[in-house]
Design brief:
By secondary structure, the chain is an alpha/beta fold. It folds into two domains: about 10-65 and about 340-350 and about 370-390, Urease, subunit C, domain 1, CATH 2.30.40; about 70-325, TIM Barrel (Alpha-Beta Barrel), CATH 3.20.20. Helix content is about 20%, strand content about 25%. Strands 1, 2, 3, 4, 5, 13, 14 and 15 form an eight-stranded mixed β-sheet that branches. The chain has a seven-stranded parallel β-sheet with strand order 6-7-8-9-10-11-12. The longest helix is centred in the middle third of the chain and has 12 residues, at about 180-190. The radius of gyration is 21 Å and the shape is globular. The two termini are about 30 Å apart. It binds zinc ion. Zinc ion binds near residues 99 and 200.
């Protein structure tokens, strides 16, 4: 009995799909070839011998995308986090960043038992507080006097390849009476460790121009289209503040991090209409929002931004090339360039009438929905819909 299959020149021939690869400005019909855990160039003479291929996948009618990157998720067991591989891979997501669920006290534990064992590529931000996000009913203490800088130093010295940056949350119930001191101290710490600060500022207590003026190149403003409380990225006339444009010009990045309550369609619509598209589109998923109608999954969040007027190419860029670059991994992921990791999301853009709703009760009618068909991570099939099984005659 033959147990080991002889190696073939190609493991996968993804044939006849519409490839969108914003990192290479590619948008059109093309075949993609995989060998082992890498993407490889198509044969030079354009001819492929089917006998040289282990598996041919008919991708006609589908989009072939770089494995998607969910830039803002929550994976910690104790803070309403969800299981990384289980939630992400069936949704075309092959890479993700935990958005600072865990503080310095438990971070090493989180890294070794949750982040490192995952099949997908993961990084995590260190919450600047010792306790991190403890879950509903408990708010982390963001007083800078209590930060454990020694523990942070250890984490950045020992685990840097797994670390995405530092994370701080400010706003109502978190930073009352503290002003922007925690933000200023956290930015200083990020610079000291040569990393970025990701800032959650929902229901902020200070106007957004004051907040973004403290951020610098590579820092991320999460939940950038939020509308809780009096302050948002729009001024009283609904215009993007000049300080927000300036922050982008300085290299601050804006992530939608949708969540259940962190994205107002009215703000997103106004921003996009003024040419202020998000840099990154992500879910901010937790157990409260996983597969729930206001969020559902990354492809569902991407579909919302199509309905809000962004092009498919731009939406894909926000979930591939841009987050890959922010992770410092653009040579490895976020593209289908030969030589990179064989992470691929095969997705259908289906005509479906959908009505999305945000936390403010605003509705958004969509005519198209991205529906995942197959996910390949590092050359291995991790998910495949029955529709794309090749079983139908
Ligand atoms: Zn979050």
């Amino acid at each position: 009995m033959k147990i080991v299959e002889p190696a073939k020149k190609y493991d996968f021939w993804l044939r006849g799909g519409h490839v969108i690869d914003p990192a290479r400005s590619l948008d059109g019909e093309a075949d993609v070839f995989l060998s082992g855990c890498r993407i490889v160039p198509p044969p030079e003479n354009g001819h492929v011998e089917p006998a040289d291929v282990r598996e041919i996948v008919d991708c006609s009618g589908c989009l072939v995308l770089p494995g998607l990157i969910d830039h803002h998720v929550h994976f910690s067991w104790n803070t309403s986090g969800i299981a990384p591989d289980l939630f992400c891979l069936p949704n075309g997501v092959t890479t993700a960043c935990d958005a600072g669920s865990v503080g310095t006290n438990a971070f090493e534990n989180f890294l070794r038992f949750r982040v490192m064992p995952a099949m997908m590529t993961l990084k995590a931000s260190v919450n600047v507080t010792t306790g991190g996000l403890a879950g509903a009913g408990y708010v982390e203490n963001i007083d800078p006097a209590l930060y454990d800088v020694r523990a942070m130093t250890y984490l950045f010295e020992r685990y840097r390849p797994y670390l995405y940056g530092l994370k701080l949350r400010i706003g109502k119930d978190i930073s009352e009476g503290m002003g922007l001191k925690p933000l200023e101290e956290s930015v200083k710490l990020a610079r000291r460790f040569g990393t970025r600060l990701s800032l959650h500022a929902t229901h902020p207590l200070e106007p957004v121009p004051e907040i973004v003026s403290r951020l610098g190149e590579g820092d991320v403003l999460c939940h950038s289209f939020q509308a809780m409380g009096p302050y948002r990225i729009l001024d009283e006339n609904g215009r993007i503040y000049p300080e927000v444009w300036n922050a982008r010009a300085r290299g601050v990045r804006f992530d939608t991090a949708q969540g259940r309550i962190h994205c107002a369609f009215s703000v997103a619509r106004a921003a996009i209409a003024q040419g202020f598209q998000p840099d990154v589109i992500s879910t901010d998923v937790t157990t409260y929002s996983v597969y729930q109608d206001r969020l559902f999954s990354l492809p569902a969040v991407m579909s919302r931004f199509l309905a809000l007027g962004m092009s498919l190419h731009d939406v894909v860029r926000c979930c591939t090339a841009v987050p890959a670059e922010l992770m410092g991994m653009q040579e490895e992921i976020g593209t289908l360039r030969p030589g990179t990791l064989a992470d691929v999301a095969i997705v259908k853009l289906a005509d479906r009438k959908v009505s999305f709703q945000d936390c403010h009760g605003e509705r958004l009618d969509a005519a198209q929905l991205l529906i995942p068909q197959m996910t390949i991570q590092a050359g291995r099939t991790c998910y495949r819909s029955l529709e794309l099984s090749g079983l139908f005659r």
